[in-house]
Design a protein that fits this description.
The complex is a heterodimer. By secondary structure, chain A is mainly alpha-helical. Chain A is 28% helix and 4% strand. Chain B is mostly helical. Classes of the chains: A mainly alpha, B mainly alpha.
Chain lengths: 152, 96
């Protein structure tokens, strides 16, 4: 689209020392605004939809969060599941290590990937069944057998 | 230690199965065994770890509310449950 590469973007924003003195406000200086407007700001003729993050929604609770705008077609909702098959191994890091929670996520994605090949019986269930102690669980409703689901 | 973890996993898996069954009946869908297994493993991993890492010895209901701070609807739900629990505890004490 005739725009400079991202490398130029960086140099434009971060390497103008003579502007630094004036940069004491929270907002952009006129020079910074000009750079932002020219290099980064999404405009109609860019042909790119504005990126937005999906809002939290709780299926099982009343929703207090704002309902999203009706003009959602005009935006690009950033997806956290579109590339799920990439997520069963750690992605590279730069300065921030993966958190424990992130590693748990990766492990579960890997487990799902392994189970994807399974037909019917579930190896996870078979592995855990001998460890179940009935005093650990709340048995209220009577169930036929230990299996509560049917296979895929 | 491994055996204890597997026992906990098994209990979580069983309970996850019961809860999924409730949702399945509610929504008129079926959960595959693999889906229940994955939900159960996610639940297992979402628990314990943070509790074991907590430095304070006594975790209070305020700490629990803090876990829900990111979502208004979740925070409201947890706060409401916490109040219900507190008032029913009060009643119990008064009876004694």
């Amino acid at each position: 689209r005739g725009r400079p590469t991202s490398l130029h973007h960086k140099s434009a924003l971060f390497s103008c020392p003579k502007e630094l003195n004036r940069h004491e406000n929270w907002s952009l200086s006129p020079e910074e605004f000009e750079i932002w407007d020219r290099l980064y700001r999404l405009k109609e003729n860019d042909g790119v939809k504005e990126p937005i993050l999906p809002r939290t929604q709780f299926e099982t609770l009343g929703n207090l969060e704002e309902t999203s705008k009706s003009e959602e077609e005009a935006v690009h909702k950033l997806s956290l599941s579109e590339w799920s098959i990439w997520q069963s191994r750690p992605f590279p890091t730069s300065m921030v290590d993966h958190s424990d929670r992130c590693h748990h996520f990766i492990s579960v994605m890997d487990m799902i990937e392994v189970m994807r090949q399974e037909q019917g019986d579930c190896s996870y269930e078979l592995e855990l069944q001998p460890h179940l102690r009935i005093e650990d669980v709340n048995v209220q409703r009577s169930k036929s057998g230990s299996s509560v689901t049917s296979s895929a | 230690c491994g055996a204890v973890l597997q026992r906990l996993r098994a209990a979580v898996h069983y309970t996850a199965g019961c809860l999924c069954q409730g949702v399945a009946e509610d929504k008129g869908v079926l959960f595959s065994k693999q889906t229940v297994a994955a939900i159960s493993e996610i639940t297992f991993r979402q628990c314990g770890m943070s509790a074991w890492h907590a430095k304070r010895s006594t975790i209070t209901s305020e700490d629990v509310k803090l876990l829900a701070r990111r979502s208004n609807s979740l925070l409201k739900y947890i706060t409401q449950k916490s109040e219900e629990l507190a008032s029913s505890n009060m009643e119990q004490k008064e009876k004694k």
